[in-house]
Design a protein that fits this description.
Distance between the termini: 57 Å
Strand order of the largest sheet: 1-2
Helix content: 25-40%
Largest sheet: 2 strands, antiparallel
Number of strands: 2
Order of helices and strands: HHHEE
Radius of gyration: 29 Å
Structural class: mainly alpha
Length: 95
């Protein structure tokens, strides 16, 4: 499916792109090239091929889920203007 100049103008209007008259032919060619590549990919026979979540099927190395810092909440809240039951109290901003 090849795009015409009018199609590109409609797409540019919908995308709120300000294309110059000189840019329209170049943009039309670029979009037609992209659509040609999509057509090539859709023409590939993928019957019997299992989809992949990642092309390399790599697994991510994870760190150990261990606590590495101490709890400093009491120290941080000691300088707060208002605290109650371990929570910071702030002024009401919405009535």
């Amino acid at each position: 499916m090849a795009l015409e100049r009018s199609d590109v103008e409609k797409i540019a209007h919908l995308a709120r792109l300000g294309l110059n008259e000189a840019d329209i032919p170049r943009t039309t060619d670029a979009l037609n090239t992209i659509l040609g590549l999509v057509d090539q990919m859709q023409a590939v026979d993928t019957v019997g091929i299992e989809p992949l979540a990642h092309p390399l099927e790599a697994t991510q190395r994870l760190r150990v889920d261990a606590v590495t810092e101490q709890n400093n909440r009491d120290r941080y809240q000691s300088i707060a203007p208002a605290v109650q039951d371990g929570l910071y109290l702030v002024p009401k901003v919405i009535d």
